[in-house]
Design a protein that fits this description.
Layout lengths: L1 H10 L4 E5 L5 H12 L7 H5 L1 H5 L1 H4 L5 E8 L17 E2 L8 H20 L3 E4 L7 H7 L4 E2 L5 E2 L7 E8 L19 H5 L5 E3 L2 E2 L5 H7 L6 H7 L2 E3 L3 H4 L26 H5 L3 H7 L9 H14 L7 H4 L8 H14 L2 H11 L6 H9 L3
Helix pairs in contact: 14-16, 16-18
Length: 370
């Protein structure tokens, strides 16, 4: 049965396959609980609210007897590290340059479960990073790879450029693959390269410091201590993934939906800044980027422009000081503080500050140019 399942999975475009029992080791549950208790999940309250489901898959669905875990390669053949620091270009994480992986993989999972049901019966629930499922530890148990020191999954044959999807099933499927031995050894490349020191020790990530968290999940004003370190990254960060030596085994994906769309491959910061809400929704309608909304997106673009050193962009940025969103206004002020002379910044403060009522935005006027 299991060979039949694996062959079908590969024929549908999945790159790796494994089966695990619907349970987590005590160490995984303990680590998750510690992560939450130390507030390292930041304001991702959904993690804390559904902790019991994450700690025990049977709490999520009592009828589950096996978990099929599948991986889909999204590597398009180029390391993104060379794009860090391109002053007038925006860096978008590799996984978001193509079409939304949730939809692409969910479609494959539906086809797969329909086939399994016709052949073997049973009931199913499918998940692609949208439910309280500890996909990485379960994938380790299923033999797909090991969690590296950056906490992401690493595969001997794919490196770490792959998505995970899981199928909870009522079928009892015999597990054949054993856990893969951790092969990180003494390597600390992912820890050393992290711009914000978010990997506070091997296998432990503080999300509050992670650029991916700050630019995607975080809904507030990004703390000043991280803004310069963000550089030109406007959506996510691939540094710890891209530097991993195991990527020497990565191969180019067969899934065309994951190849970068032209307009999302090193896009112009100036063009992105000019996006109205309608333009934003149209540009990103097929992308996972759309979920952060226009305001957070422009917040991120303004930080990147502030880091660009392109003083000639200040006249465009100034228009955003009166934007409807406090997030945008605050980062426009910060960006201006990085692009213009101190005396001109004081002039602008005198011009605009009396129009402002938001305390966060006001604080930028009095702290950004210090």
């Amino acid at each position: 049965m299991i060979e039949d399942l694996e062959q079908k999975a590969i024929s549908l475009g999945f790159d790796c396959f494994g089966v695990a029992q619907p349970s987590l080791t005590k160490s995984v549950s303990k680590n998750l609980s510690n992560f939450i208790s130390l507030k390292m999940h930041g304001d991702m309250q959904w993690m804390e609210n559904r902790l019991s489901f994450r700690n025990n898959p049977k709490n999520l669905w009592p009828d589950v007897n096996s978990v099929i875990v599948l991986g889909v390669n999204y590597f398009y053949g180029q390391s993104p590290l060379s794009e860090i620091g391109l002053k007038n270009k925006a860096f978008i994480s590799s996984y978001s340059r193509g079409n939304d992986y949730h939809k692409v993989i969910k479609k494959k999972l539906k086809l797969y479960t329909e086939w399994i049901h016709r052949r073997y019966g049973g009931e199913y629930k499918i998940f692609v990073d949208t439910a309280p499922v500890m996909e990485k530890p379960i994938a380790v148990e299923a033999g797909l790879g090991w969690q590296g020191k950056h906490t992401n999954l690493i595969s001997k044959k794919l490196g770490n450029w792959f998505f995970l999807g899981s199928i909870f099933t009522s079928l009892n499927i015999k597990k054949e693959k054993e856990k893969v031995t951790n092969h990180c050894g003494s390597c600390t490349s992912c820890i050393d390269i992290c711009p914000t020191n978010a990997i506070i020790e091997p296998y432990k990530l503080d999300a509050r410091r992670c650029i991916s968290y700050l630019t995607i999940e975080y809904k507030q004003h990004i703390p000043k201590e991280f803004r310069k370190k963000i550089g030109n990254r406007i959506y996510g960060c691939d540094d710890c993934l891209a530097i991993c030596p195991w990527n020497k085994f990565a191969r180019v994906t067969n899934e065309t939906d994951f190849f970068p769309r032209r307009e999302l491959n090193k896009p112009s910061l100036t063009k992105l800044l000019k996006l109205k809400d309608k333009d934003f929704r149209e540009l990103f309608q097929k992308s996972s980027i759309k979920r952060i909304g226009r305001d957070r997106f422009i917040r991120n673009v303004l930080i990147a422009i502030g880091n660009s050193g392109k003083k000639e962009l200040s006249h465009i940025v100034e228009k955003f000081i009166l934007d409807k969103s406090p997030l945008v206004r605050a980062m426009a002020i910060w960006a201006m503080s990085q692009l213009i002379e101190r005396n001109y910044f004081k002039y602008l403060r005198g011009k605009y500050v009396l129009r402002e009522e938001n305390l966060w935005v006001l604080s930028e006027w009095f702290k950004s140019n210090e």
